[in-house]
Each structure stands twice: as structure tokens, then as C-alpha cells.
Design brief:
Layout lengths: L5 H10 L3 E7 L5 E6 L2 H4 L2 H15 L6 E5 L2 H13 L2 E7 L5 E3 L10 E9 L3 H12 L3 E10 L11 E6 L4 E2 L4 H4 L19
Parallel strand pairs: 3-4, 3-6, 6-7, 7-8
Antiparallel strand pairs: 1-2, 2-9, 4-5
Helix pairs in contact: 3-4
Bound molecules: zinc ion.
Zinc ion binds next to α6.
């Protein structure tokens, strides 16, 4: 599977209708004028296979034993990357006291080589938490791969990072210009989908 350029990844996201402009609250609580609705891509197995293939290409030769991702998109992505690498896939869920943890009988052995994957990296929080959950088992994180790094380089990791598409999307705290303009605010991601499919 050939590598994909950032422009090709952007085209896949745009054609899937995953790039939305408006006024959004992100998971971090900050506001943004652009939102990437990754599930518009992840609902399409062929596109997901293509994107995961680029990650699998990068990961081949790195002796990956297991692929781990954070809920929710990371479940799908980890599974497809693992399918292509011929490894196991596990996922980390939100812990009751914060952070992430492995449940459902998932176990990692000390020294087991784990690749962490996620869909969109905004602040890096989910990726950091998943890396911490892997290390808490004694396993080794050999690297991380994401479909999109939208942090503009702000999110840094202590393992090699492969991002298929890097872009900078401004986010706002106090003093959001979209709030000042009175633009209606959307809570994307977990809000119910419209009853009539767009396409
Ligand atoms: Zn705002």
C-alpha cells in the first residue's frame, strides 16, 4: 500500500464531507471555526482501509506486536491497521478517575511492542493517555500514528509520531471572534445525526 500525501488525505476527508466550517466546541472546551467529523470518513470501510494502509506501511518493519487506540474512533482505526499488519488490536477507554485504561480482558505483556493510533490529534490528550495506559502494563510504545495532526505542532510526544495530514486550525478560549460575531455554537461529534442522511 503506497504512502498518502497530506493533500490526498485532505481530499478523502473533503469527499466524505468530514471537513465542516462553522462555530464548534471541541472536546477540549475551546472553540473553533472548523471541525473534522472523522466518522464521516470512518463510516466508509474502503476509505478507512486506505488511510490505515498508509499507517501500516509506516509501521511495517518496526516489529509491531499489538495496535492500541483510544475510544471511539481509535477502536476502528486500531482494528483496521492491525488487520493489515496481522497483529492484535486493543483499545483504551476513559477511566473513572480520568486518563485511560484497558478493560474487557485486554492484556499486554511486559516489553510487548505496541503501536498507538488515533484519528484526529488536537491537543494530544487521548494519545498521551493511551501511551500512559500501555506503559502502565509494562509494554513498550514504539510509536504513534494519527490520521490528522491538527495541533499545528503544539502536541508533542516522546515517541516517533507519524501524521498522515498535518494542518493548523486556530482554536479560541476567552475572546473567541465567532462568539463575538454571535455565530450559533455547535457541539459536534456526539450530537444526534439528522434523521435524513445527507448522501
Ligand atoms: Zn466561540
Amino acid at each position: 500500500m503506497p504512502q498518502l500525501t497530506g493533500a490526498e488525505v485532505e481530499r478523502i476527508f473533503r469527499e466524505a464531507g468530514a471537513v465542516r466550517d462553522g462555530h464548534f466546541v471541541l472536546a477540549s472546551g475551546r472553540h473553533s471555526g472548523r471541525y473534522l467529523e472523522k466518522f464521516q470518513v470512518l463510516q466508509r470501510p474502503r476509505e478507512t482501509e486506505k488511510l490505515a494502509g498508509a499507517i501500516a506501511s509506516w509501521a511495517r518493519g518496526r516489529d509491531v506486536a499489538t495496535v492500541a487506540g483510544p475510544t471511539t474512533g481509535g477502536i476502528i482505526l486500531a482494528h483496521e491497521v492491525a488487520r493489515q499488519l496481522g497483529t492484535r488490536a486493543v483499545y483504551a477507554e476513559r477511566g473513572e478517575l480520568g486518563g485511560r485504561e484497558f478493560r474487557r480482558g485486554f492484556s499486554l505483556a511486559p516489553g510487548e511492542r505496541v503501536l498507538v493510533v488515533d484519528d484526529i490529534m488536537s491537543t494530544g490528550g487521548s494519545v498521551h493517555e493511551t501511551i500512559a495506559a500501555v506503559r502502565a502494563t509494562g509494554a513498550t510504545v514504539l510509536g504513534a500514528a494519527v490520521l490528522v495532526d491538527r495541533s499545528g505542532g503544539e502536541a508533542t510526544l516522546d515517541v516517533p509520531l507519524y501524521a498522515l495530514w498535518r494542518l493548523e486550525i486556530p482554536t479560541y478560549g476567552v475572546g473567541c471572534p465567532l462568539c463575538a460575531a454571535g455565530a450559533p455554537l455547535e457541539h459536534p461529534g456526539t450530537t444526534p445525526a439528522p434523521t435524513v442522511a445527507a448522501r
